[in-house]
Design goal:
Helix content: over 70%
Shape: globular
Distance between the termini: 58 Å
Largest sheet: none
Length: about 180
């Protein structure tokens, strides 16, 4: 149990730390919202790349028997991965706050959170409801079976880096076209 808690804590520290590091390195981006949004996208892309690599490694080591073969590091990665969902919800909220400006920050916290959830309700369901469902399902209820299939599911993250790069480039092009003219 100590190993699992350590991995969970490491994930809870790693993702916000990478976010802060990336955000601090984007000092040339003057607009706070753009800097935060790009930082969120970069951390998402990094996490997705690691997830895909882990999925490929898991599939490689469990390809002989896709139901019963175990890959010992899969559960470790899942404990590390679960905090990403909560970090991402927090980071998206931070970017949302900055995007709305000072006047919005004068409203109550409850009102700000309500407006954020109204605007990003589907993403928040994904980030706040799925981890308590996926975590126990993947770690406990499957009883050590199907590591190969979990590896396959991790491959779905392969689209995220491309989506992130697309959004970053669109933001950069928008800034070049409309703010530099």
């Amino acid at each position: 149990m100590l190993v699992e808690l350590s991995l969970f804590t490491l994930g809870a520290i790693t993702f916000p730390s990478v976010f802060r590091l990336v955000s601090s390195r984007l000092y040339m981006v003057r607009d706070d919202y753009c800097r935060l949004d790009i930082s969120v996208k970069i951390v998402s892309a990094i996490q997705a790349i690691v997830c895909v690599l882990f999925g490929m490694i898991t599939m490689h080591y469990t390809k002989d028997d896709i139901v019963f073969t175990r890959f010992y590091l899969l559960d470790c990665y899942i404990y590390f991965w679960i905090p990403y969902f909560y970090y991402d919800a927090w980071a998206l909220y931070q970017a949302f706050l900055v995007s709305k400006g000072e006047k919005f920050r004068e409203s109550t916290t409850k009102e700000r959170v309500k407006r954020f959830f109204r605007k990003k309700w589907l993403m928040m369901i994904h980030h706040l409801v799925l981890p308590p469902i996926y975590g126990p399902s993947i770690l406990l209820f499957r009883q050590g079976k199907g590591d190969y299939l979990i590896g396959c599911a991790f491959l779905m993250e392969a689209t995220i880096p491309f989506i992130s790069v697309r959004n970053i480039l669109l933001r950069a092009i928008y800034k070049l076209l409309f703010l530099k003219v």
